[in-house]
Design a protein that fits this description.
Elements: H1 11-15, H2 28-31, H3 43-56, E1 60-67, E2 73-79, H4 82-86, H5 88-98, E3 113-118, H6 125-140, H7 142-148, E4 152-156, H8 161-174, H9 214-226, E5 230-237, E6 243-244, E7 249-252, H10 258-278, E8 282-283, E9 289-290, H11 298-301, E10 306-313, H12 315-318, E11 321-323, E12 329-331, H13 332-352, H14 354-370, E13 378-381, H15 387-399, E14 405-406, E15 413-418, E16 423-428, E17 434-437, H16 443-450, H17 469-473, E18 477-480, E19 506-509, H18 514-525, E20 531-532, E21 537-539, E22 542-544, E23 549-552, H19 553-556, H20 563-574, E24 579-581, E25 598-599, E26 605-609, H21 615-629, E27 634-637, E28 651-654, H22 665-673, E29 677-681, H23 718-722, E30 730-736, E31 749-754, E32 767-771, E33 778-779, H24 784-787, E34 794-801, E35 804-809, H25 820-831
Parallel strand pairs: 3-4, 3-5, 5-10, 6-8, 7-9, 26-27, 26-28, 28-29, 29-35
Antiparallel strand pairs: 1-2, 2-4, 11-12, 13-17, 13-18, 14-17, 15-16, 15-18, 19-23, 19-24, 20-23, 20-25, 21-22, 30-31, 30-32, 30-33, 32-34, 34-35
Length: 835
């Protein structure tokens, strides 16, 4: 195809009548200083164009809803008829009433909201580029105005500005005046880490429910102010792929309603009508299922909307133009044209089905409050769980608009599912427990996030298959089939923050939450000397369990006379409970001056980065230190490791990746023997498997991939046969040696989010801290061949090597940083291991 602008194709004429002459509104071609459709648009120019259209058009209102980590604005445009925009706040408030929240009388009108989200993956740049064209058509087309009379369109043109500009500026820096479409050339070889991810290298399309990232939290706050009936998430994929649109592939989550499924087909048929006329290739229903709840299609679906993913061939490889396997050339303007077509078609179908969309949306939330889906009608969190963990869970519930209350008085025993044991037994409600009733507007999302075992209609799925929050947060929790509700709000007691007292012997800080880990990190960074308890100490009114922190006068006063002020100020900043102790004498266990209370070594952390790392895994470790702990870490390119002087560091963290040949192994072994500590996670373990001088054996599951030759089976069904060798993401219950520092603050069990098939036989000359039983509990899908290998294996172990040690982590405890208990486990690896 020759490079051309999409409106010269007549694409817009397919979808709309002749554009009205709103001469003040510049086209993208007229506005941009570069040839729009033939070169990428930097984010500031994208924002500039949206501002200009909003300034000139009576159909567009533009607002900013936040900023990224790199201080780029997050914006959204509201597009509708001038009459609707004049009463926009009334429309918005009525949306909340439709969704079962908000005050006032529900207005008798059909006026649904459709939300178009572009560019959650920054290097899928054709998506955000197409938002510009879509805005122009909506703002100028007469036929679009007809659709806008009973529809409100929200456009978020770029969900990931930092990643978008990372890709954009790289591409502009390597591209010349003439485009070379050959796939092997420089413009089509994006360097690590790529623009797909945000500042911390997180995949924002997996973060909708967990909201670990700044962009996600700000976007979802806005989302809940509008509650759209339709949400479209725009993506790009491999450049040889035809266009993908709804309906989605199986498995659908069992709580998706028939109407939500039917409307996907209805929209897809309308898209097909336009694509058929142009001869554009497309497909539906083969990939991109609707199970994992944290995508840009599933999350809106569990909020009552029709959530859909649209995928255009292109991605980072396509650049401005690329030669495809069929001999044709895919251009940026082609990608814009295809996304423009589905965008306008989606608005059209929203308008034409306004009444049905509103009726089913209202019914969705009415049923949620009055007759919730799912086996379990109430979820109880014991108040005896660490308060900071409960608070962290409640913060996530608040972000997801899920309401909860407090048990007012002790209740009778009723049968309930026990998350920790996996059994059903009689359980009493205790006064003060947190209760979450399924009888609420957010019932479906609640059920999805808490269901112990998600139903899987089809094992060919695109992401992890288990995620229940009680496992993620390491909480004692129960699911009841009976309705238990409470209108009494759940409140938190203020943490114990004592005033400075005279002659305090020490301050004790329980080790039970990420608040504790952040407190320790900050205390060490501010020069405090901190000890950790290795055996339970009891004195009058105080019990310090293993892992508890002690900051004593004897360790600190001589070097820091203001040590108490630092402790108390830090506790106030972090909201961390601290307990003053007047004596070091223990009635039971070692005294506080015992050598059994180990000084915590201040970690001097080296974190390698570069193309040997999995970008997401590196980002997770970086985010953990930078955002969770606010603790300094030295990030050094992997290419410099072999010659790097390791002496300034005492801890090296290796996220998932390939480190073969990156270290001088003799120097690394010598560094560990002298007291250095090494944490190795996930696929990074391959580098040490079977290596002389290290206890790590070969991964057991290297053998299961050796399946029978393909010709012994029919070609059809090959994908389903292969899944017996896979583990896309499930929860595995492990037994923990809770006497070992790697398990401090957890319990004797740990639910590991396992996203790989990596398993090891019990390691010799190591502490096997986290291991599976002979019949481990597995939640979510696991291939049959993999399942057979999971029992009686080690997943977390510590090898002592001279004065130092190595922590082996077969599973990545920092995966997407939503597995709270995983971050606690990693905190133990960072702070609690003996040098």
């Amino acid at each position: 195809m020759l490079l051309r602008f999409f409106w010269l194709l007549g694409v817009c004429m397919l979808l709309s009548a002749v554009t009205s002459a709103q001469s003040k509104i510049p086209s993208p071609v007229d506005f941009m200083p570069h040839p729009y459709g033939a070169a990428f648009t930097p984010h500031h120019l994208l924002v500039g164009y949206f501002k200009e259209v909003a300034k000139q058009s009576d159909r567009v209102v533009l607002k900013e809803y936040g900023q990224t980590n790199e201080y780029r604005p997050l914006i959204y445009a509201v597009v509708s008829s001038p009459e609707n925009l004049a009463r926009l706040e009334d429309i918005r408030l009525n949306q909340l009433r439709k969704a079962g929240r908000g005050q006032g009388k529900l207005l008798n009108e059909s006026l649904p909201v459709i939300w178009l989200s572009y560019g959650v993956h920054g290097n899928e740049a054709g998506a955000s580029e197409s938002s510009i064209a879509t805005l122009y058509e909506l703002a100028t087309s007469d036929q679009m105005l007809d659709f806008l009379k009973n529809t409100v369109v929200i456009i978020d043109p770029c969900l990931n500005p930092d990643g978008f500009d990372r890709y954009n500026y790289w591409n502009r820096s390597v591209g010349g005046q003439l485009v070379d479409p050959a796939p092997s050339t420089r413009e089509h070889q994006e360097p690590w880490p790529g623009g797909r991810v945000n500042h911390y290298l997180f995949d924002l399309n997996r973060d909708w429910a967990w909201q670990t990232q700044l962009e996600s939290r700000q976007r979802l706050e806005l989302y809940y102010q509008w509650m759209p009936q339709v949400h479209v998430d725009y993506h790009e994929m491999g450049y040889n792929s035809p266009y993908y649109f709804a309906p989605a592939a199986q498995p659908y989550h069992q709580y998706i309603t028939p109407w939500q499924a039917d409307f996907q087909t209805l929209v897809g048929q309308n898209h097909a009508r336009y694509f058929d006329k142009e001869g554009w290739l497309y497909y539906t229903g083969e990939v991109f299922d609707l199970l994992y709840p944290s995508y840009g299609d599933t999350y809106p679906t569990f909020n009552g909307a029709i959530g859909m993913t649209y995928e255009q061939g292109g991605h980072s490889r396509a650049g401005r133009a690329i030669l495809m396997e069929n001999g044709d050339t895919l251009t940026l303007s082609d990608r814009i044209a295809h996304h423009l077509a589905t965008g306008l078609s989606s608005v059209e179908m929203t308008s034409k089905n306004a009444k049905e969309l509103d009726e089913n949306f209202i019914d969705y939330f009415k049923k949620a409050s009055e007759k919730p889906v799912g086996k379990y009608k109430s979820f109880l969190i014991r108040s005896t769980n660490p308060s900071a963990r409960i608070k962290a869970l409640c913060e996530l519930l608040d972000r997801n608009q899920i309401t909860y209350g407090r048990i007012r008085e002790n209740g009778k025993a009723m049968r309930a599912f026990d998350y920790r044991s996996g059994t059903t037994r009689p359980v009493k409600q205790n006064k003060g427990d947190l209760i979450i009733s399924a009888y609420q507007a957010q019932s479906v999302l609640l059920q999805v996030l808490f269901e112990p075992t998600p139903y899987l209609a089809d094992s060919l799925t695109y992401d992890i298959t288990a995620w229940a929050l009680p496992y993620a947060y390491g909480l004692e929790a129960y699911a009841f089939e009976d309705k238990i509700s409470s209108k009494e709000p759940f409140t938190f007691n203020d943490p114990n923050l004592p005033a400075k007292a005279s002659k305090v012997y020490a301050y004790m800080i329980p080790w039970e939450s990420l608040h504790s880990a952040r407190f320790l990190a900050q205390a060490l960074d501010r020069g405090l000397k901190v000890r950790r308890v290795t055996e339970t100490c009891r004195s009058k009114g105080m019990t310090a369990e293993p892992g508890a922190l002690l900051i004593t006068r004897g360790d600190n006063e001589g070097q820091n006379p203001q040590w108490e002020e630092v402790v108390l100020q830090l506790a106030k900043e972090i909201d961390q409970e601290v307990f003053p102790l007047q004596t070091g004498f223990s009635l039971d266990g070692p005294d506080l001056g015992s050598s059994k209370l180990k000084l915590v070594e201040r970690p001097k952390v080296l974190l390698p980065s570069g193309n040997s790392n999995n970008a997401n895994a590196f980002g997770e470790a970086w985010y953990y230190f930078d955002e969770v702990l606010h603790y300094p870490v030295s990030i050094i390119d992997v290419g410099k490791l072999r010659k790097l002087d390791l002496e300034p560091y005492n801890l090296i963290v290796l996220p998932e990746g390939n480190y073969s040949g990156k270290f001088n192994m003799d120097r690394l072994s010598d560094w560990i023997a002298k007291g250095g500590r090494l944490i190795v996670m996930g696929r990074a373990l391959s580098w040490l498997e079977g290596r002389s001088g290290f206890a790590l054996t070969k991964n057991v599951n290297q053998e299961i991939s050796k399946s029978s030759p393909v010709h012994l089976h029919p070609y059809e069904g090959r994908e389903r046969r292969n899944i017996s060798n896979t583990m896309p993401g499930a929860i595995l219950r492990l037994e923990m040696d809770d006497s070992h520092p790697l398990a401090y603050g957890l319990s004797d069990t740990y639910f590991s989010l396992k996203t790989n098939t990596r398993v090891y036989k019990r390691l010799s000359n190591c502490w096997n801290v986290g291991y599976s039983s002979s019949n481990p509990k597995i939640i979510g899908f696991t291939g049959a061949k993999v399942r057979k290998t999971l029992s009686n294996k080690t997943y977390f172990a510590v090898e002592k090597k001279g004065k130092g040690n190595i922590v082996y982590m077969a599973d990545n405890p920092l995966f997407r940083c939503f597995w709270y208990n995983g971050m606690m486990l990693f905190s133990n690896a960072v702070f609690m291991q003996d040098p």
